[in-house]
Amino acid sequence: MDKLDQLLKECEALAFDLNFEVAKKWKADSPDRMIVGYLPIYVPREIMHAAKALPVGIMGAGDRKQIIKGDAYYQSYICHLPRGIIEMALDKNLNDFDGFLFPAICDCVRNLSGMFKLSKKGNFQRYFDYPQNFDPKIGGTFYKQEMEKIIDDMFKVNGVKVTVDAINKAIGLYNINRRLIEAIYKIRQEFPWRLSAVDTYYVLRAGLAIPVEQHNKILQQVIDVISIERGEPMDNIRVVISGSFCEQPPIGMIKSIEMAGCYIVEDDLMLGSRWIQGDIDDTTANPLETLALAYINQSTFSSAYYDVGNPKGKRLVKLAEACNADGVIFCAASFCDPALLDRPEMQKECDAAGLAHINFQFHENTGQFKVIKEQAGTFSDSIKLWA
Ligand code: SF4
User: Fold this and answer.
1) Residues in the chain, pLDDT under 50
2) Looking at the domain assignment, is residue 39 inside a domain?
3) 311 within domain boundaries
4) What pLDDT, on a 0 to 100 scale, did the predictor assign at position 333?
5) Looking at residue 335, what DSSP letter applies?
6) What range defines the domain where residue 119 resides?
7) What is the pLDDT of residue 256?
8) Is residue 104, in this structure, part of any structural domain at all?
């Protein structure tokens, strides 16, 4: 097994460990450490790092857990992710977590935060609202106050006072993290055969379960390997995946799209880790304000994000053009309201720009990919033959 294979194997294990063993071990090393779980998509992980908390992304149970109790908590006509997460909580997978953040992305996540509260999971369960007003004086101030509430929640658990220096240090570490991730995407956009989309996914998702310092080392090692030619170019089309920002598609589905002749050169799978575009200033005297401004001015686009002045459809087309994509695959979780409600508008923008697109839906535990492979294969062939 070569060095990259070894790394990828480690990342895969980290990414899908429903018992969060690395996080638990990290926490056990010091009595003032804690684990704060967060749901998709984005939270400012910097403030948790500054409070000696390990932010751990909870992206659902996927196909690794049978849902029995979770179904009793939710009606049948919603996505799968919240059922899997409540099942994990009831099965004690999340028992070592000290608190939970529920970003305000949809009603399902809002309801899940209530269920965690009622079930008394963790010491705090915070529903984390994003600003809808992009005036820094209004939305920025609001967002800063939301972050202060989380800091207060964490202080009540471990008594660690968050300092300006600690937040700035964390901002610096996450700047490196974002830069390294973008470097991997850049290399893949030029040489997509060097690292598959599935392997890229493992590498990014592993970062949700380990300290950022450790993830930065892994990312650098991956870059060192894929900066040198490896693999063989294929006659594939280039696609952007859009709509998979929350509930995650099964690995078999990502593999099927690739095997059907599509290089996935952009996606929104691990969007939280790529949410802020570019560096955040890590030298200011008021880092909370800096983080709030970064959210207002440097956020990427998503269906779970209110950006009426900067339409998502146009941003999607721009993204596809920037990475020289041949088409877009709209790939949303079944019953995902934010993604599915936005899709028609986004498709209209693709049509206006002459950008080919297809769509399908999935559950995180979908097990059959034949139809998806056929659809993606036909999409790929039609672009190769007639575009
Ligand atoms: S998959 Fe969609 S509907 Fe389900 S929790 Fe996530 S954003 Fe909400």
Assistant:
1) none
2) yes
3) no
4) 97
5) T
6) 20-163
7) 97
8) yes
Q: How far is the CA of 171 from the centre of ligand 1 (A)?
A: 28
Q: Is the CB of 104 under 6 A from ligand 1?
A: no
Which helix (H) or strand (E) is 150 found in, with range? helix 141-158
Report pLDDT for 199.
Answer: 98
In short, whether 108's Cβ falls inside 6 Å of ligand 1 is: yes
Residue 264 placed within a domain: no
User: Which burial class, exposed, middle or buried, applies to 341 when counting CB atoms under 10 A from its CB (0-12, 13-18, 19+)?
Assistant: exposed
The pLDDT of residue 76: 86
CATH number reported for the structural domain that contains residue 75 in this entry: 3.40.50.11890
pTM (2 d.p.): 0.97
Q: Is the CB of 265 under 6 A from ligand 1?
A: no
pLDDT at 386: 86
* Ligand 1 binding pocket includes 103 (Cβ within 6 Å): no
Which pLDDT belongs to residue 387? 76
How far, in Å, CA of 70 to CA of 24, rounded? 24
Closest-CA residue, ligand 1 atom 2, reads: 336
Total number of domains in the chain = 1
